[in-house]
Amino acid sequence: MANVIIVGAQWGDEGKGKIVDIYTEYSQQVVRFQGGNNAGHTLVVGDEKTVLHLIPSGILHEGKRCLIGNGVVLDPKVFLEEIDGLKKKGYLKDDSQLVVDGAVNIIMPYHKKIDIAREQKAGAKKIGTTGRGIGPTYEDKAGRRAIRFADLMKPETFKRKLADVLPEKNFYLEQYLGEEPLSADEIAEEYLGYADRLRCYLGRVSTTLDAAIKAGDNVLFEGAQGSLLDVDHGTYPYVTSSSTVAGGACTGTGLGPNKIDQVIGISKAYVTRVGEGPFPTELHDEMGERLRAAGHEFGATTGRPRRCGWLDIVALKEAVRTNGLTGIALTKMDVLNELETVKVCTAYRHGEELLEEFPQDFDVLKECTPVYEEVPGWQCDINDTKEYDQLPQQVRDYVDKIEAWTSCPVVLVSVGPRRDQTIQRTNPFVK
Protein backbone atom coordinates (compact mmCIF):
# COMPACT_ATOMS: atom_id res chain seq x y z
CA MET A 1 0.00 0.00 0.00
CA ALA A 2 1.23 3.51 -0.85
CA ASN A 3 -0.30 6.97 -0.93
CA VAL A 4 1.42 9.33 -3.35
CA ILE A 5 0.99 13.07 -3.97
CA ILE A 6 1.67 14.49 -7.43
CA VAL A 7 2.40 18.23 -7.59
CA GLY A 8 3.71 20.64 -10.16
CA ALA A 9 7.24 21.74 -9.34
CA GLN A 10 7.23 24.89 -11.49
CA TRP A 11 4.55 27.42 -12.55
CA GLY A 12 2.12 24.76 -13.74
CA ASP A 13 1.67 23.07 -17.13
CA GLU A 14 4.46 20.59 -16.31
CA GLY A 15 2.64 17.54 -17.70
CA LYS A 16 0.93 16.39 -14.51
CA GLY A 17 -2.01 14.90 -16.40
CA LYS A 18 0.15 12.39 -18.21
CA ILE A 19 2.07 11.39 -15.08
CA VAL A 20 -1.11 11.00 -13.05
CA ASP A 21 -2.54 8.89 -15.86
CA ILE A 22 0.52 6.62 -15.72
CA TYR A 23 0.54 6.27 -11.92
CA THR A 24 -3.20 5.62 -11.87
CA GLU A 25 -2.41 2.12 -13.12
CA TYR A 26 -1.01 1.37 -9.65
CA SER A 27 -3.70 3.09 -7.57
CA GLN A 28 -7.35 2.40 -6.85
CA GLN A 29 -8.32 5.91 -5.74
CA VAL A 30 -7.38 9.17 -7.49
CA VAL A 31 -8.26 12.43 -5.74
CA ARG A 32 -8.06 16.09 -6.77
CA PHE A 33 -7.42 18.33 -3.76
CA GLN A 34 -7.31 22.00 -4.84
CA GLY A 35 -7.95 24.49 -7.60
CA GLY A 36 -10.78 24.58 -10.09
CA ASN A 37 -11.32 24.66 -13.83
CA ASN A 38 -8.44 27.11 -14.12
CA ALA A 39 -6.33 23.96 -14.42
CA GLY A 40 -6.00 21.91 -17.57
CA HIS A 41 -4.56 18.40 -17.74
CA THR A 42 -3.90 17.08 -21.25
CA LEU A 43 -3.70 13.33 -21.76
CA VAL A 44 -2.85 11.47 -24.96
CA VAL A 45 -3.98 7.83 -25.10
CA GLY A 46 -3.13 6.29 -28.45
CA ASP A 47 -3.98 9.04 -30.91
CA GLU A 48 -6.80 10.48 -28.80
CA LYS A 49 -6.24 13.66 -26.79
CA THR A 50 -8.41 14.42 -23.76
CA VAL A 51 -8.25 17.69 -21.79
CA LEU A 52 -9.62 17.61 -18.24
CA HIS A 53 -10.14 20.64 -16.00
CA LEU A 54 -11.90 19.31 -12.89
CA ILE A 55 -12.25 15.54 -12.99
CA PRO A 56 -9.09 13.64 -11.96
CA SER A 57 -7.10 12.20 -14.85
CA GLY A 58 -7.60 8.70 -13.48
CA ILE A 59 -11.11 8.73 -14.93
CA LEU A 60 -9.67 7.36 -18.19
CA HIS A 61 -8.99 4.06 -16.39
CA GLU A 62 -11.89 1.68 -15.93
CA GLY A 63 -12.60 0.64 -12.35
CA LYS A 64 -10.72 3.50 -10.68
CA ARG A 65 -12.60 5.74 -8.28
CA CYS A 66 -12.01 9.46 -8.77
CA LEU A 67 -12.74 11.93 -5.99
CA ILE A 68 -12.92 15.73 -5.83
CA GLY A 69 -11.87 16.90 -2.39
CA ASN A 70 -13.13 19.76 -0.23
CA GLY A 71 -10.20 21.97 -1.27
CA VAL A 72 -11.52 22.25 -4.85
CA VAL A 73 -13.85 24.96 -6.18
CA LEU A 74 -16.33 23.70 -8.77
CA ASP A 75 -18.26 25.28 -11.62
CA PRO A 76 -21.26 22.95 -12.04
CA LYS A 77 -21.81 23.87 -15.69
CA VAL A 78 -18.20 23.10 -16.63
CA PHE A 79 -18.30 19.94 -14.51
CA LEU A 80 -21.37 18.63 -16.34
CA GLU A 81 -19.84 19.50 -19.72
CA GLU A 82 -16.78 17.50 -18.75
CA ILE A 83 -18.90 14.55 -17.62
CA ASP A 84 -20.85 14.61 -20.90
CA GLY A 85 -17.63 14.76 -22.92
CA LEU A 86 -16.20 11.76 -21.09
CA LYS A 87 -19.38 9.71 -21.45
CA LYS A 88 -19.47 10.51 -25.17
CA LYS A 89 -15.98 9.01 -25.46
CA GLY A 90 -17.05 5.89 -23.57
CA TYR A 91 -15.64 6.79 -20.14
CA LEU A 92 -17.46 7.13 -16.79
CA LYS A 93 -19.95 4.37 -17.54
CA ASP A 94 -20.53 3.94 -13.81
CA ASP A 95 -21.44 7.17 -11.98
CA SER A 96 -20.30 5.68 -8.66
CA GLN A 97 -16.77 5.99 -10.06
CA LEU A 98 -16.90 9.74 -9.32
CA VAL A 99 -17.36 11.35 -5.88
CA VAL A 100 -17.59 15.07 -5.03
CA ASP A 101 -17.18 16.17 -1.42
CA GLY A 102 -20.15 18.08 -0.01
CA ALA A 103 -17.81 20.83 1.28
CA VAL A 104 -16.56 21.69 -2.21
CA ASN A 105 -17.28 25.38 -2.84
CA ILE A 106 -19.42 26.28 -5.85
CA ILE A 107 -18.29 28.88 -8.39
CA MET A 108 -21.23 31.23 -8.90
CA PRO A 109 -21.97 33.61 -11.80
CA TYR A 110 -20.98 36.64 -9.71
CA HIS A 111 -17.57 35.09 -9.03
CA LYS A 112 -16.82 34.88 -12.74
CA LYS A 113 -18.18 38.33 -13.46
CA ILE A 114 -16.14 39.90 -10.66
CA ASP A 115 -13.00 38.06 -11.74
CA ILE A 116 -13.18 39.34 -15.32
CA ALA A 117 -14.20 42.90 -14.39
CA ARG A 118 -11.40 43.23 -11.83
CA GLU A 119 -8.79 42.22 -14.40
CA GLN A 120 -10.15 44.73 -16.88
CA LYS A 121 -10.16 47.48 -14.26
CA ALA A 122 -6.57 46.64 -13.19
CA GLY A 123 -5.22 47.20 -16.70
CA ALA A 124 -1.44 46.90 -16.74
CA LYS A 125 -1.49 45.76 -13.09
CA LYS A 126 -3.65 42.71 -13.80
CA ILE A 127 -2.69 39.35 -12.28
CA GLY A 128 -3.40 37.37 -15.45
CA THR A 129 -6.18 35.16 -14.06
CA THR A 130 -8.12 32.76 -16.27
CA GLY A 131 -11.34 34.66 -15.57
CA ARG A 132 -13.00 31.48 -14.31
CA GLY A 133 -14.00 32.96 -10.93
CA ILE A 134 -11.52 30.92 -8.91
CA GLY A 135 -10.07 33.69 -6.74
CA PRO A 136 -13.41 35.29 -5.80
CA THR A 137 -14.77 31.85 -4.85
CA TYR A 138 -11.85 31.20 -2.50
CA GLU A 139 -12.38 34.69 -1.05
CA ASP A 140 -15.94 33.74 -0.14
CA LYS A 141 -14.68 30.48 1.35
CA ALA A 142 -12.29 32.38 3.63
CA GLY A 143 -15.03 34.93 4.35
CA ARG A 144 -17.42 32.15 5.45
CA ARG A 145 -20.09 33.09 2.90
CA ALA A 146 -19.55 30.37 0.29
CA ILE A 147 -22.23 28.14 -1.18
CA ARG A 148 -21.15 24.51 -1.03
CA PHE A 149 -21.85 21.50 -3.22
CA ALA A 150 -24.10 20.01 -0.51
CA ASP A 151 -26.09 23.28 -0.37
CA LEU A 152 -26.86 22.94 -4.07
CA MET A 153 -28.77 19.73 -3.33
CA LYS A 154 -31.13 21.55 -0.93
CA PRO A 155 -33.19 24.15 -2.85
CA GLU A 156 -34.31 26.19 0.16
CA THR A 157 -30.81 26.30 1.63
CA PHE A 158 -29.36 27.31 -1.73
CA LYS A 159 -31.91 30.10 -2.23
CA ARG A 160 -31.41 31.39 1.31
CA LYS A 161 -27.63 31.53 1.00
CA LEU A 162 -27.89 33.16 -2.41
CA ALA A 163 -30.30 35.78 -1.04
CA ASP A 164 -27.88 36.53 1.79
CA VAL A 165 -24.86 37.16 -0.41
CA LEU A 166 -26.17 38.50 -3.74
CA PRO A 167 -27.08 42.07 -2.59
CA GLU A 168 -23.47 42.60 -1.52
CA LYS A 169 -22.14 41.15 -4.80
CA ASN A 170 -24.50 43.30 -6.88
CA PHE A 171 -23.52 46.43 -4.96
CA TYR A 172 -19.86 45.70 -5.68
CA LEU A 173 -20.55 44.89 -9.32
CA GLU A 174 -22.59 48.05 -9.91
CA GLN A 175 -20.94 50.65 -7.71
CA TYR A 176 -17.28 49.70 -8.01
CA LEU A 177 -16.88 47.65 -11.19
CA GLY A 178 -19.57 49.34 -13.27
CA GLU A 179 -21.27 46.07 -14.21
CA GLU A 180 -24.91 45.06 -14.47
CA PRO A 181 -26.45 43.36 -11.42
CA LEU A 182 -27.42 39.68 -11.42
CA SER A 183 -30.86 38.17 -10.78
CA ALA A 184 -31.29 35.76 -7.86
CA ASP A 185 -34.20 34.04 -9.61
CA GLU A 186 -32.23 33.46 -12.80
CA ILE A 187 -29.23 32.09 -10.89
CA ALA A 188 -31.44 29.79 -8.81
CA GLU A 189 -33.24 28.49 -11.87
CA GLU A 190 -29.96 27.71 -13.63
CA TYR A 191 -28.09 26.19 -10.69
CA LEU A 192 -30.93 24.17 -9.20
CA GLY A 193 -31.38 22.78 -12.67
CA TYR A 194 -27.90 21.29 -12.34
CA ALA A 195 -28.63 19.73 -8.95
CA ASP A 196 -30.65 16.73 -10.13
CA ARG A 197 -27.86 15.58 -12.43
CA LEU A 198 -25.16 16.19 -9.83
CA ARG A 199 -26.86 14.59 -6.83
CA CYS A 200 -25.50 11.11 -7.57
CA TYR A 201 -21.91 12.36 -7.13
CA LEU A 202 -22.33 13.81 -3.63
CA GLY A 203 -20.21 12.11 -0.97
CA ARG A 204 -17.61 12.67 1.74
CA VAL A 205 -14.08 12.30 0.47
CA SER A 206 -12.33 12.15 3.85
CA THR A 207 -14.23 9.11 5.10
CA THR A 208 -14.24 7.45 1.68
CA LEU A 209 -10.45 7.68 1.45
CA ASP A 210 -9.95 6.61 5.05
CA ALA A 211 -11.96 3.45 4.46
CA ALA A 212 -10.13 2.77 1.20
CA ILE A 213 -6.72 3.14 2.84
CA LYS A 214 -7.73 0.83 5.69
CA ALA A 215 -8.81 -1.70 3.06
CA GLY A 216 -5.33 -1.58 1.52
CA ASP A 217 -5.97 0.62 -1.51
CA ASN A 218 -3.27 2.81 -3.06
CA VAL A 219 -4.26 6.48 -3.31
CA LEU A 220 -2.97 9.03 -5.80
CA PHE A 221 -3.41 12.72 -4.93
CA GLU A 222 -3.58 14.90 -8.01
CA GLY A 223 -2.53 18.53 -7.70
CA ALA A 224 -3.27 21.35 -10.11
CA GLN A 225 -1.20 24.40 -11.16
CA GLY A 226 2.36 24.45 -9.76
CA SER A 227 4.26 25.02 -6.53
CA LEU A 228 5.42 28.49 -7.57
CA LEU A 229 1.76 29.52 -7.89
CA ASP A 230 0.94 28.55 -4.29
CA VAL A 231 -0.99 31.31 -2.53
CA ASP A 232 1.51 31.26 0.38
CA HIS A 233 4.76 30.02 -1.11
CA GLY A 234 4.55 31.19 -4.72
CA THR A 235 5.45 34.42 -6.51
CA TYR A 236 2.79 36.41 -4.64
CA PRO A 237 0.66 38.25 -5.75
CA TYR A 238 1.03 36.54 -9.14
CA VAL A 239 -0.24 33.23 -7.82
CA THR A 240 -3.40 31.16 -7.77
CA SER A 241 -5.79 31.25 -4.81
CA SER A 242 -5.21 27.80 -3.31
CA SER A 243 -2.48 25.75 -1.68
CA THR A 244 -0.77 23.98 -4.58
CA VAL A 245 2.04 22.42 -2.53
CA ALA A 246 1.88 18.91 -1.08
CA GLY A 247 0.48 20.08 2.25
CA GLY A 248 -2.68 21.10 0.41
CA ALA A 249 -3.40 17.42 -0.25
CA CYS A 250 -4.11 16.92 3.44
CA THR A 251 -6.20 20.04 4.04
CA GLY A 252 -7.95 19.60 0.69
CA THR A 253 -9.12 16.04 1.39
CA GLY A 254 -9.38 15.73 5.17
CA LEU A 255 -6.56 13.22 5.63
CA GLY A 256 -3.65 13.53 8.06
CA PRO A 257 -0.03 13.86 6.85
CA ASN A 258 0.90 10.51 8.39
CA LYS A 259 -1.07 8.88 5.56
CA ILE A 260 1.34 10.18 2.88
CA ASP A 261 4.21 7.97 1.68
CA GLN A 262 5.72 9.73 -1.36
CA VAL A 263 5.61 13.18 -3.00
CA ILE A 264 6.53 13.40 -6.68
CA GLY A 265 7.15 16.79 -8.27
CA ILE A 266 6.65 17.21 -12.02
CA SER A 267 9.18 19.41 -13.79
CA LYS A 268 9.72 20.11 -17.45
CA ALA A 269 13.26 19.88 -18.77
CA TYR A 270 12.84 23.63 -19.29
CA VAL A 271 10.28 26.06 -17.76
CA THR A 272 7.06 27.72 -18.86
CA ARG A 273 4.65 30.17 -17.30
CA VAL A 274 1.19 31.45 -18.28
CA GLY A 275 -0.02 34.87 -17.18
CA GLU A 276 1.79 37.71 -15.46
CA GLY A 277 4.54 37.64 -12.85
CA PRO A 278 8.32 37.31 -12.54
CA PHE A 279 10.09 34.63 -14.56
CA PRO A 280 13.90 34.94 -14.22
CA THR A 281 14.88 32.55 -17.04
CA GLU A 282 12.26 33.70 -19.56
CA LEU A 283 13.54 33.85 -23.14
CA HIS A 284 12.34 36.72 -25.32
CA ASP A 285 14.29 35.61 -28.37
CA GLU A 286 14.25 33.01 -31.12
CA MET A 287 15.11 30.27 -28.63
CA GLY A 288 11.99 31.04 -26.59
CA GLU A 289 9.89 30.78 -29.76
CA ARG A 290 11.67 27.55 -30.65
CA LEU A 291 10.82 25.96 -27.29
CA ARG A 292 7.21 27.13 -27.57
CA ALA A 293 6.80 25.63 -31.03
CA ALA A 294 8.56 22.35 -30.23
CA GLY A 295 6.71 21.91 -26.95
CA HIS A 296 3.30 23.05 -28.26
CA GLU A 297 3.24 25.50 -25.38
CA PHE A 298 -0.26 26.90 -25.38
CA GLY A 299 -2.52 26.78 -22.31
CA ALA A 300 -4.88 23.79 -22.09
CA THR A 301 -7.44 25.98 -20.30
CA THR A 302 -7.04 29.39 -21.97
CA GLY A 303 -5.16 28.68 -25.21
CA ARG A 304 -2.75 31.48 -24.29
CA PRO A 305 0.84 31.09 -25.51
CA ARG A 306 3.08 30.09 -22.61
CA ARG A 307 6.18 32.07 -21.75
CA CYS A 308 9.23 29.82 -22.14
CA GLY A 309 12.67 29.72 -20.55
CA TRP A 310 15.57 27.54 -19.48
CA LEU A 311 15.34 25.16 -16.53
CA ASP A 312 15.58 27.06 -13.24
CA ILE A 313 17.33 25.04 -10.51
CA VAL A 314 16.88 27.79 -7.91
CA ALA A 315 13.11 27.58 -8.33
CA LEU A 316 13.17 23.78 -8.52
CA LYS A 317 15.06 23.57 -5.21
CA GLU A 318 12.32 25.73 -3.68
CA ALA A 319 9.75 23.19 -4.86
CA VAL A 320 11.79 20.31 -3.46
CA ARG A 321 11.86 21.97 -0.04
CA THR A 322 8.29 23.30 0.22
CA ASN A 323 6.79 20.00 -0.95
CA GLY A 324 9.24 17.60 0.67
CA LEU A 325 9.73 15.97 -2.73
CA THR A 326 10.88 12.36 -2.67
CA GLY A 327 11.27 12.28 -6.44
CA ILE A 328 11.17 14.37 -9.61
CA ALA A 329 9.36 13.33 -12.79
CA LEU A 330 11.13 15.08 -15.67
CA THR A 331 8.89 15.77 -18.66
CA LYS A 332 9.33 17.00 -22.24
CA MET A 333 12.96 15.96 -22.56
CA ASP A 334 12.28 15.41 -26.25
CA VAL A 335 11.59 19.13 -26.78
CA LEU A 336 15.36 19.70 -26.38
CA ASN A 337 16.25 17.01 -28.94
CA GLU A 338 17.73 19.31 -31.60
CA LEU A 339 19.68 21.70 -29.39
CA GLU A 340 23.46 21.76 -29.57
CA THR A 341 23.74 23.09 -26.01
CA VAL A 342 21.25 23.50 -23.17
CA LYS A 343 21.41 26.21 -20.52
CA VAL A 344 20.45 25.70 -16.88
CA CYS A 345 20.06 28.46 -14.29
CA THR A 346 21.96 27.46 -11.14
CA ALA A 347 21.83 30.81 -9.26
CA TYR A 348 20.48 34.36 -9.48
CA ARG A 349 22.42 37.60 -9.58
CA HIS A 350 20.84 40.47 -7.64
CA GLY A 351 23.09 43.50 -7.76
CA GLU A 352 26.41 42.36 -6.33
CA GLU A 353 24.82 39.44 -4.51
CA LEU A 354 24.73 35.84 -5.73
CA LEU A 355 21.53 34.08 -4.65
CA GLU A 356 21.25 30.30 -4.56
CA GLU A 357 17.90 30.28 -2.72
CA PHE A 358 14.61 31.49 -4.19
CA PRO A 359 13.86 35.00 -2.80
CA GLN A 360 10.55 35.51 -1.03
CA ASP A 361 10.62 39.26 -1.66
CA PHE A 362 8.78 39.95 -4.92
CA ASP A 363 10.74 43.14 -5.58
CA VAL A 364 14.02 41.24 -5.28
CA LEU A 365 12.87 38.39 -7.50
CA LYS A 366 11.79 40.62 -10.37
CA GLU A 367 15.24 42.27 -10.35
CA CYS A 368 17.16 38.96 -10.43
CA THR A 369 19.07 37.83 -13.49
CA PRO A 370 19.93 34.15 -14.08
CA VAL A 371 23.41 32.68 -13.76
CA TYR A 372 23.69 29.90 -16.34
CA GLU A 373 25.69 26.74 -16.78
CA GLU A 374 25.78 25.27 -20.28
CA VAL A 375 25.56 21.53 -20.82
CA PRO A 376 25.93 19.58 -24.08
CA GLY A 377 22.77 18.76 -26.01
CA TRP A 378 22.11 15.34 -27.58
CA GLN A 379 20.92 16.39 -31.05
CA CYS A 380 19.04 13.18 -31.75
CA ASP A 381 15.51 11.81 -31.49
CA ILE A 382 14.85 10.14 -28.12
CA ASN A 383 11.06 9.85 -28.49
CA ASP A 384 10.93 6.07 -28.88
CA THR A 385 13.60 5.20 -26.31
CA LYS A 386 12.25 2.55 -23.93
CA GLU A 387 15.04 2.06 -21.37
CA TYR A 388 16.97 4.64 -19.37
CA ASP A 389 20.39 3.18 -20.21
CA GLN A 390 19.52 3.47 -23.92
CA LEU A 391 19.25 7.25 -23.67
CA PRO A 392 22.22 9.25 -25.03
CA GLN A 393 24.94 9.89 -22.47
CA GLN A 394 24.26 13.64 -22.69
CA VAL A 395 20.66 13.07 -21.53
CA ARG A 396 21.79 10.95 -18.61
CA ASP A 397 24.44 13.54 -17.72
CA TYR A 398 21.72 16.21 -17.72
CA VAL A 399 19.60 14.11 -15.37
CA ASP A 400 22.63 13.47 -13.10
CA LYS A 401 23.25 17.20 -12.84
CA ILE A 402 19.63 17.93 -11.93
CA GLU A 403 19.81 15.31 -9.19
CA ALA A 404 23.05 16.77 -7.86
CA TRP A 405 21.81 20.36 -7.93
CA THR A 406 18.47 19.58 -6.25
CA SER A 407 19.52 16.68 -3.97
CA CYS A 408 16.42 14.87 -5.24
CA PRO A 409 16.28 11.74 -7.44
CA VAL A 410 14.73 11.85 -10.91
CA VAL A 411 12.35 8.88 -10.84
CA LEU A 412 10.79 9.27 -14.29
CA VAL A 413 11.78 10.72 -17.66
CA SER A 414 9.14 11.52 -20.29
CA VAL A 415 10.38 11.47 -23.89
CA GLY A 416 7.10 12.23 -25.69
CA PRO A 417 3.43 13.07 -25.13
CA ARG A 418 2.03 9.55 -25.31
CA ARG A 419 1.55 7.28 -22.31
CA ASP A 420 4.07 4.77 -23.74
CA GLN A 421 6.75 7.44 -24.21
CA THR A 422 7.77 7.29 -20.57
CA ILE A 423 10.77 5.77 -18.79
CA GLN A 424 10.23 4.90 -15.13
CA ARG A 425 13.43 4.57 -13.15
CA THR A 426 11.67 3.82 -9.87
CA ASN A 427 7.98 3.50 -9.05
CA PRO A 428 6.67 5.37 -5.95
CA PHE A 429 3.96 2.73 -5.52
CA VAL A 430 6.44 -0.15 -5.39
CA LYS A 431 8.46 -0.42 -2.19
Molecular structure report:
The chain is built from 13 helices and 20 strands. The protein has 431 residues and is α/β, with parallel strands linked by helices. The strands form 5 sheets. The protein has a 10-stranded mixed β-sheet, sandwiched between helices. Helix 3 (109-122) packs across helix 4 (134-142) and helix 3 packs parallel to helix 6 (155-176). The radius of gyration is 22 Å and the shape is globular. Substrate binds at residues 300-306. Its main location: cytoplasm. The active site is at 13 (proton acceptor), 41 (proton donor), 141. One of its GO terms (cellular component) is cytoplasm.
Give the arrangement of secondary structure elements:
Layout: E1 3-8, H1 16-23, E2 29-32, E3 41-45, E4 48-52, E5 65-68, E6 73-74, H2 76-88, E7 98-101, E8 105-106, H3 109-122, H4 134-142, H5 149-152, H6 155-176, H7 184-198, E9 202-203, H8 205-214, E10 219-222, H9 247-251, E11 262-268, E12 271-273, H10 286-295, E13 307-309, E14 311-312, H11 313-323, E15 327-331, E16 341-350, E17 353-355, H12 362-365, E18 369-376, H13 393-406, E19 410-414, E20 422-424
Parallel strand pairs: 1-10, 1-11, 2-5, 2-10, 5-7, 6-8, 7-9, 11-15, 14-16, 15-19
Antiparallel strand pairs: 3-4, 12-13, 16-17, 16-18, 19-20
GO biological process, one term: 'de novo' AMP biosynthetic process
Keywords: Cytoplasm, GTP-binding, Ligase, Magnesium, Metal-binding, Nucleotide-binding, Purine biosynthesis
Enzyme class: ligase
